[in-house]
Amino acid sequence: MRRANRSHNPRPSRLPKGEEPPGRPRLQSTGEGPAVTRAVEAPEEGRAVVTAFTWTQFALCRDGYLSPQDADYLIDYFFRYMHPMYPLVDHKYCNIANRAQFATEEAFLCTTVLAITSRYAWHQASAFSARATEVHGALYRHVQSELQRCLWGSGPERYSEARTLSIIESIMLIVEWRPRSMDMITPPKDIVGDYALEQYGYAAAPTTADVSLESHVRTAWDAFKAVNITSWRLLCTAVNLADEIGLHSAITKLQHTPSQARHARVQEFLVSLVWERSFRLGRRCQLSHPADGSKAIANAPDGQFLNNILESRMELYRLTRLIENTLYPSARQTADLIARGNYQTAVDDFSGLLAAWKTRFDRVKASSPPLAKHLEIMWQGTRAFLYSISLRALLRERSLPPSRLESGNNGNGQGARPPPRMLQMDQSSRQDHHMAEEWLQASESAIGVALELHREGLLRLAPLNVLYHVIAASLAVLKAERLPLRTTTADPRHLLTQLVRALEDSSVDDAHFSARYAACLESMMGCLEEDRRRCVGRAHGGPADDAAAANSSSLDGGGGDPTGIAIPGFETPFGVFEGASHDHLSFLDCNNEDWSRWLSF
């Protein structure tokens, strides 16, 4: 087999100033070649130089796919900057003394870590971009090959429990840090075979002249639904493998050993990840969190300083699922809760539980700042999730609900205009508006924490779940501007523009999730700004402006003056985008089981 030429190994480049993670290891030449580098700890931390002996028995290094220096750099990079944000892998491997064990006893998991890290660590190495892409592709193909051997039974007759756990962990890492090829769409011409595979979804997406906000939201949602479906299918395999080795039954024994702690950690992270993807696909998660899993993890002998913050993570997931089961079991049941008016008490109770969780979390978050930022974003997202029921309640208070707006369309683009009515600001309505403000504030705070991660150079290394919460937060801000629901004079466009730039800067390549959503968000912001100008023209302009607005049926869906419900405290009437009818409000309608359409992607 062809050996790798060391003179062509890429030098991992540093991040630009202001984006470099703190404590980044210095790169020192080994004297073996101009481009061969070795990760060396800063002298003040007292770490010895890493030798290549650790990787001499690793198959990919032995066969020339990867140099020992590159492998050491990538593993060190992962455990320094990526692992703290999603501490799934056994924490003992953060210790350099255990790297040889990681490379030999956890070869499949080690290869997966190398594959996903190679996409992020060398994204700035322009002089070696071809080589870096080649290394990343080769590593990922090796992971795919090993996974297929497991699924198709062409590997060992019986995989050990430890090896099966490695496969489960590898799948979860791939779901959270997707390899580049998983984000690429295979062109029909590159598909080998004589069958018309295009009819099964490989054909190019149909183009449309629709440039409304609804069309941009639908385009973004359709694009990322494919990401969630891929993750869902991979996680189904992981769940089956976990069932095969009796993962859940093993946890209930409560034997506080390193093996038991690993079982509990994998089960906890797996259930949480399956629930997240299930929710974003509008499906019910049938897995439940183990009742005693928190005890097993909290008593883990490895990484004891993480025990408290991991326990906080588990509490937050259970609280979020309790909110879902109570307030959002289905669209019909949520509508019934709103109609009866007994949802506000539940919201107040959950708000107190979330505040109590935050108090406990603040006492332990210093043990792992990157994970703490991750959990803070999730906490803000959970608050927004809790208060988002107020959005549906406010829409219900309209003189005509969104479903009537759609049915009232007369077929020529002219939506039926609900009669003007002032919103009755009774106690229930005031509480709904207060919850809507909390919903918006939580969403903006989540974006603010994400921008802090970007300034620290860690947003581009964040797992996919962090980006999902940021996406949901940005959509909430857009929805608040669209209705509008904002009582303050603060302009969110600057915040969203900052987020777009942060997502663009955090993209490791053109196919990265951040780059794709940044483009979608910028398009939605442009559409919203265009509608804002139309609204101002219709509200303050003369007959000519009204005529121009009436002609713009593709965006406004109708003409006339913008009558609607006026909310005290808003300079703009509630019907600011009233002419949009179904096109402007359907993405806010939750009269179906697909909650991901209006809560998040």
Automatic annotation (TrEMBL):
GO BP: any one term: positive regulation of transcription by RNA polymerase II
Highest taxon in the source lineage: Eukaryota
GO terms assigned for molecular function: DNA-binding transcription factor activity, RNA polymerase II-specific
CC annotations in GO: nucleus
InterPro entries linked to this entry: AAA_Catabolism_Regulators
Feature: compositional bias, Basic residues: 1-11
Disordered as annotated region, ranges: 1-35, 401-435
Protein name in UniProt: Transcription factor domain-containing protein
Organism: Lasiodiplodia theobromae
